[in-house]
Amino acid sequence: MAELPAAIESNIPFLALLGIAVLAFGFAYWHYRSVVPQISDIKRRLLMGLRFISFASVLFLFFKPNITLIFQREIKPKISVYVDNSLSMSVQDAAEKRWEETAKVLKKVNILRPGTRWLFNNNVFPLNDSSFAVSKDATNFETLFKHIDENKADNIILISDGNVTAGSYPVQLKRHPDKKIFTVGIGREENNSDLFIDNVSYEPVIYKGIEQNISVKIGTKNLKKAFTASVKLMQNRTVLAVKSFRVDTLEAFHTIVFQNTPQTVGQNKFKVTLENYKSDVNKQNNSFLFIQQILKKKLQIALFTGLPGYESKFLNQLLSAEPDFDCRFFVENKQGRFSGKDNPDIKTPFDVLIFQNFPSPYTKQQTLIQLAQILKKRKSSLFLMLGEKTDRAKLNSFLEFTPFEQVPKKLRSEAEPLFNPGNSALLDLFNNSSANSQFWQQIPPIDVLFAPGKLKPEVKILLSGKERPLILSYSKPGFRNMTFNGNGFWRWHFLMQNNSALANGYKNLLKHSIRWLADRRKIKPVLLKADATETIPGKAVQLNGFIYDADFKPVKDGQFQLQVQQGEEIIEINTEMDSSGRYSAKYLPAKEGTLQFTAKGFRFGRLYGQDKLQVEVAAAEKEFIHTGINRRYLQQIAKESGGLYTDAAQIDSLIKHIPQEVTIQKEKQSIALWYNPYLLAFILLTIISEWILRRRFGLV
To answer: Structure pTM?
Structure first.
């Protein structure tokens, strides 16, 4: 049954409506006060009524009438509950675990009939019967507050111990009118003696032979006496250094800095450990394990542009921000010179040259010769990004380094949507296959600038438009080329920023392309990737694998075998293949140690290739650095939002302060009658009905 409005308003004043009614009634009465031939009073009044309605309606339309329907609705406050289920919620507090105390609090909160319930750790996800359990993840309040800011709830109940172990401690919340956060503290204060590692600062990616500082922040709490403690730095079970320091009974932090010069390229495991203090009740926070990626050297990249703009600025900004890229930016002016201090040097061992809108009509012949020598003698790879300023005649100087047999003809710029998103590993931009597919379906069209012409036999078309190729790759022994044939690829980045899951797609494409160009090794026929290089017991590792053919495209007629070894134990892992040819699996490690994953690909009954990778499994020490409740931070959150804080034991008193009153909300729905087709049809119907009746009564 349709809802009836509580009131109706009109844009026409009451006196005007009254005047229309009087005028229409007078006109109808005057016309039908007497008729020839005479008819009964009932028939005369019926005709008078139809004339009144039709004439009044026509006059009514001259005022462009609008009516507003007013509906009244009862609005109950929306309440959302966020429950911390990070690893620290498994801590034993006196007689019960924090998670047991959390369950009791949640049971009482459910009396409020909250609209949505969420669990949070490093991420936020819905709370239901199957998900209600302690996880192995850390606590990230930055992710939590971002979710709260986007939540439509009027009031928030946050149940946590308040300890942040991932990200930072955000306090400044976006202020929302009438949105308050009520915090419930789980846990007890720490009163026991504790010597602990609070944090270790290090660079995740470093280079062989370069000295680094590893800074260890050590804290003390409730110590009974002063003593000398020691901390040691280990790499793959080898002690690199030991340092001693003096601690006393005052609560304080000590910073110990180790200098280390890595010599082993690849993934290296480091561990910092403290001497066990006899009265230390929490020994889980006396060690800290971290993984560093040791690179041989940074990739040397030279970016040349003949037309500074969004594309070149974005490229320079992105490449300069990458820790393993050393990028030099050369901007050509109308005199054919490069502005700034940088000038291309034949002696610089560039790994990749990027030509964006280059060579241009201003490029000097000497520059063309010099860059061609760099490509030949230094065996640099070429990333060619064709643009409006690219000069066809001067591109001839680099023809042997391009995918073209002859310089392609320039086209009139035409926006061309993607016709075939390809099936190459270079276009596999996300670990999530659905995100990858979604990205290629949503990217905007590209202005194609050059016809493909005749391509070299070794060229692979990775991405094409409706009629022409957009991205091409070309490789031969000792050299590789990537060509982007279009203008405005940078839009792929900026137009995808409204979707956080796809925002880095274009960045990933550029990084994949540059790393492929710089890699002189033969392409692996079997590739295995993991979503992390380190994890904790009980947290799954996502694995993705591919079998590639000679064109570096995934094959779907092979067999993929995956196994993991930890110590002496070897386990076979089942994989599933999706429509793109990706083999995926999840592995849940049960204990600490090094996981050695081995993938083997088979085709036509024989071994086609294999790949290996390592993942380190370490205890989640940061979740146990501070096992006491962080009451001060939870109180600060409540105060910032205008809410209240309470300990779990006083949850009943907090529930009384959470607004639950029903409010009346008025909603207005405006209807424009002056061009409403139903009203016009009604007027025509009354006019036609009157005419038919007049004819029937012999008045016409």
So the answer is: 0.53
What token pair was written down for 105?
């609090």
Name the amino acid, one letter, at 113. R
Residue 239's closest CA among 205, 275, 210? 275
3-to-70, 264, 351, 425, 550 alpha-carbon distances in Å:
11, 74, 71, 57, 67
Q: 49: burial class by Cβ within 10 Å (0-12, 13-18, 19+)? A: middle
**Averages of pLDDT over each 10 residues, the chain, 700 residues:** 67 82 86 82 86 85 79 73 86 77 87 80 84 82 82 84 70 60 83 77 82 88 83 87 87 87 82 76 74 82 85 86 86 81 63 92 90 85 90 91 88 68 75 79 82 85 83 85 87 82 88 85 78 76 85 80 89 87 86 88 88 80 68 85 86 78 68 76 87 83
* Amino acid at site 639: K
β-strand 593-603 against 606-617: which pairing, if any? antiparallel
The single-letter code of the amino acid at 335 is: Q
Which of 30, 225, 84, 118 minimizes the C-alpha distance to 629? 84
Assess contact for 381 and 352: CB atoms under 8 A: yes
Burial bucket for residue 622 (CB in 10 Å: 0-12, 13-18, 19+)? buried
Please give, one letter per residue, the 3-state secondary structure of 369-385: HHHHHHHHHCCCEEEEE
Q: Report how far residue 133's alpha carbon sits from residue 137's, in angstroms, rounded to the nearest whole number.
A: 12
Secondary structure (3-state) at 581: coil
